[in-house]
Amino acid sequence: MAVDHRQHHMETVRSFLSVLTYPLQYVASFPVTASHWMSDRLATRDQLQTENAQFREENLLLHARLQKLAALEAENMRLRDLVESSFKIGDRALIAELVAVDMDPYKHQVLINKGSRSGAFVGQAVLDANAVMGQVTHITPLTSTVLMITDASHALPVQVSRNGLRSIAVGTGRIHQLELPHLPNNADIQEGDLLVTSGLGGHFPPGYPVAVVTSVTQDPGQPFLTAIATPSAHLERSREVLLVWTLEPPVDTALVSESSTEPEVADSEALER
């Protein structure tokens, strides 16, 4: 042993013996090795299940945040459109949000979250980012009821932007349709004409977009033609609206009716609410 320790003469013998005894060592250590392997496997499986559950929760949370982000982005774009619209019209404007829609199929009106405490008043013009939506018909301190321009009881004095022809846009009870009654067969109106508020009656300041003429039908046997227009406002989709105050003094409707001899003005005051 001393000679082997110093000169390593038995190295070959030890190597041969280690090869012979290796199976015995493996069998002796197998239970411990197997227990460690099973323990690691079970721990890894539990860890993977826990991480998988955490990832699923995080995925759901991220999806929810993504949906909220998309909604906020869309709302931000709508608000930016409203702000840009308020700068374009040049009047004082207040942004309001829809809180309820009247489910009566024969009424086109909505409820907004601004009332008399915010300065709203009956007859006030209401717009979205594109065009006129309607006007305030009833107020409370915190809310206001807005009658849409397509309601069958609503009428709005308008004029053709191209030539200034005056008429009245009457609601038909259909959300995508307005009618221009009592236009003579020789009236200068055609498809594609833009209708804007004329300012007559004092409720709506002049120059606001209202609708686009989509159909003009002339019948030689009838004294008046049939003109149909589509509102430019997104009446069924808009969530935010503008309450508008005109910077000009309101028109005295009594003076207008006395000084005007044209039947269109009188009709506009009789039909406008």
Write the layout of secondary structure elements.
Layout: H1 2-7, H2 11-89, E1 92-101, E2 109-112, E3 125-127, E4 132-139, E5 144-148, E6 155-160, E7 166-171, E8 178-184, E9 194-197, E10 209-217, E11 224-231, E12 240-245, H3 253-259, H4 263-271
Antiparallel strand pairs: 1-2, 1-12, 2-5, 3-4, 3-12, 4-5, 6-7, 6-9, 7-8, 8-11, 9-10, 10-11
Write a brief caption for the model.
The chain is 37% helix and 28% strand. The protein has 273 residues and is an alpha+beta fold.
Structure characterization notes:
There is one protein chain. The chain is an alpha+beta fold. It folds into three domains: 13-89; 91-146, Rod shape-determining protein MreC, domain 1 (Thrombin, subunit H); 150-238 and 246-271, Beta Barrel (Thrombin, subunit H), CATH 2.40.10.350. It has four helices and twelve strands; from the N terminus they run H-H-E-E-E-E-E-E-E-E-E-E-E-E-H-H. The protein has helices at residues 2-7, 11-89, 253-259, 263-271; strands at 92-101, 109-112, 125-127, 132-139, 144-148, 155-160, 166-171, 178-184, 194-197, 209-217, 224-231, 240-245. A six-stranded antiparallel barrel has the order 1-2-5-4-3-12. It has a six-stranded antiparallel β-barrel with strand order 6-7-8-11-10-9. A hairpin with a 6-residue loop joins strand 10 and strand 11. It is rod-shaped. It starts with a helix and ends with a helix.
